[in-house]
Amino acid sequence: MEAPAVSIFLVVLCFDRGMFPDPEALLHDLLLLAGTESPSADPVAVARVLDLVEGWARDLGAEVRHLSGGTRRFAFGEDGTRPPLLLLAHADTVWPHGTLETMPLRVEGERLYGPGVFDMKAGVVGAIHALRALEGQWPAGGIVLLVTPDEEIGSPSSRAHIEAAAAQARAALVPEPPVGESDTRHAHALKSGRKGVIDAALTLTGRAAHAGNEPERGASAVAAAAELIPRIEAAARPDLGTTVLVTQIAGGTATNVVPAECRLTLDVRVSQAGEDERVLRGLAALRPTDRRVQAAWALAVNRPPFPRSEATLSLFAQAQAAAQELGFTLTETAVGGGSDGNFTAPLCPTLDGLGAPGDGAHAPHEHIRLDMWPQRVALLTRLLREV
């Protein structure tokens, strides 16, 4: 696939002023990475993407470590003079094998469409090109690029590695995608905060009986669920940014059987520290009014909240000033979705959303803006040099 034509403005900046990376080289590497499918559930496939990244990193002189669970750590100029800068990315996607057959990579005008390009293979490629632009002139303390294999499924194997790296870093830069362009209010904004995520599921177990002959002998788990749902969702505190929604329900075996089992799955998100513990305690205490129905909760914090802090806003101010010098405007906002930045934010200043502008994460219209991407890579280069 050939690179699309780029504007004269970008060509001038890229080649005459040396500020932006070569857009054709960016596209070439992204087509290679996005053309290698890497669903989270297949560690061998994810490792193939990590191998490509490792090859590029070794070409830049990285010190490479393979960590448990598949995470890879690439260190550039780490000299111990001060804490390194952490650059955090992931190689997995939500898309199953075979998606490229129905969603092939394609360029339409200024957009590249395809699975995983927005979330977040363009971010991985952009990170490598930003490092390449430093030409081996690493900042004092150096840079650590951590690329994980399982962000899309909650980072079960990589969380400990992320937190260990963040605890030793002076700041974390996360080239996850910025806010999507379909958000007319905050399109392309960096992410200065994210909600924490709680994994919550409830299994209700009642008693089966013939629905026609002896319904009184049954204890309906579905009826218990219907009674519980308003009480569950009452745990929300919109004023504090806490949302609690029952998003899936499954129960019953046949139309003529009192349902003995029902399962609820929740989407729970919190903005403030401490809210996760309040919600966990409140949900765990909920039981059906019908005492014949037993309740079994499965509750865990998936990601802690990433609050919008002064440290993050200070990082954003640096980014905003650099963007202005590069010729574009930069904004920020807090968002509801989580990322691995949620793990770094409690441990070091964190700025998220430094990947390629676009839209459609996890959706069939997933794409990036090729005309805007070189700007964001140039911005990341500046931050790597100056933070």
TrEMBL record:
<keyword id="KW-0479">Metal-binding</keyword>
<dbReference type="InterPro" id="IPR011650">
    <property type="entry name" value="Peptidase_M20_dimer"/>
</dbReference>
<dbReference type="InterPro" id="IPR001261">
    <property type="entry name" value="ArgE/DapE_CS"/>
</dbReference>
<dbReference type="InterPro" id="IPR002933">
    <property type="entry name" value="Peptidase_M20"/>
</dbReference>
<dbReference type="InterPro" id="IPR017150">
    <property type="entry name" value="Pept_M20_glutamate_carboxypep"/>
</dbReference>
<dbReference type="GO" id="GO:0046872">
    <property type="term" value="F:metal ion binding"/>
</dbReference>
<feature type="domain" description="Peptidase M20 dimerisation">
    <location>
        <begin position="193"/>
        <end position="284"/>
    </location>
</feature>
<dbReference type="InterPro" id="IPR036264">
    <property type="entry name" value="Bact_exopeptidase_dim_dom"/>
</dbReference>
<dbReference type="InterPro" id="IPR050072">
    <property type="entry name" value="Peptidase_M20A"/>
</dbReference>
<keyword id="KW-0378">Hydrolase</keyword>
<dbReference type="Pfam" id="PF07687">
    <property type="entry name" value="M20_dimer"/>
</dbReference>
<dbReference type="Pfam" id="PF01546">
    <property type="entry name" value="Peptidase_M20"/>
</dbReference>
<dbReference type="GO" id="GO:0016787">
    <property type="term" value="F:hydrolase activity"/>
</dbReference>
<feature type="active site">
    <location>
        <position position="92"/>
    </location>
</feature>
<keyword id="KW-0862">Zinc</keyword>
<feature type="active site" description="Proton acceptor">
    <location>
        <position position="151"/>
    </location>
</feature>
<protein>
    <submittedName>
        <fullName>Peptidase M20</fullName>
    </submittedName>
</protein>
